[in-house]
Specification:
Layout lengths: L12 H8 L3 E6 L5 E7 L13 E5 L6 H18 L4 E5 L8 H9 L1 H17 L6 E5 L1 H5 L4 H12 L7 H11 L4
């Protein structure tokens, strides 16, 4: 029996680390209700005292439909990339967790597809910037495994002594995971 091959469009933490070392990177936790992001200067040699994000925020929209909210967020994210001189963007890619009732409920309700659509819109928006920005996709399992939101928040607090709001905390967690600090 052969080992399942990882899809080519997904990156491992090691691949992200080697590609982004020494550059400014935006980590993105997308959603139609709000997209959290955190910009890090990814350190070659991770020093927890210098590993705090340069800046963080959540992009929201009050549009009536999820499609229009995603479109607005996808327009705003490239502006944040330009403002923060970002060279790489790492986006959390949604997956169906086989053993998770919550994940199956999200798939059944269409929320998982909405999340995938949000990721696609963000990728398109970044490509339309007309500036070379590397885009990488990482699954939640790759960067946090089975950690709960509470466990991620606790590890962020332990690593850099900061607390962040929902969505932003996952973006910060991805950045810390890439630097080996989560």
């Amino acid at each position: 029996m052969s080992k399942r091959k990882r899809p080519e469009h997904l990156s491992t933490l090691a691949e992200i680390r080697s590609t982004t070392a020494g550059s400014r990177v935006m980590f993105v936790d997308s959603g139609s209700g709000g997209t959290g992001w955190a910009v890090f200067d990814v350190l070659v040699c991770a020093n927890p005292l210098r590993a705090k994000p340069v800046t963080v925020d959540v992009i929201t929209s009050d549009a009536d439909t999820w499609q229009m909210r995603i479109a607005q967020i996808a327009e705003d994210l490239p502006i944040m990339c330009r403002r923060n001189d970002v060279y790489h963007v790492v986006i959390e890619w949604p997956v169906l967790w086989a053993g998770s009732e919550k994940s199956h409920a999200a798939a059944a309700s269409g929320k998982l597809l909405q999340l995938a659509a949000a990721c696609g819109a963000l990728i398109q928006g970044i490509h339309l910037m007309r500036r070379a920005v590397g885009i990488m996709l990482v699954t939640p399992n790759e960067w946090k495994g089975q950690l709960t939101k509470h466990a991620v928040d606790a590890r962020i607090m332990r690593a850099i002594g900061e607390a962040y709001p929902n969505r932003v905390s996952d973006a910060v967690g991805m950045g810390l995971a890439v630097m080996g600090l989560l």
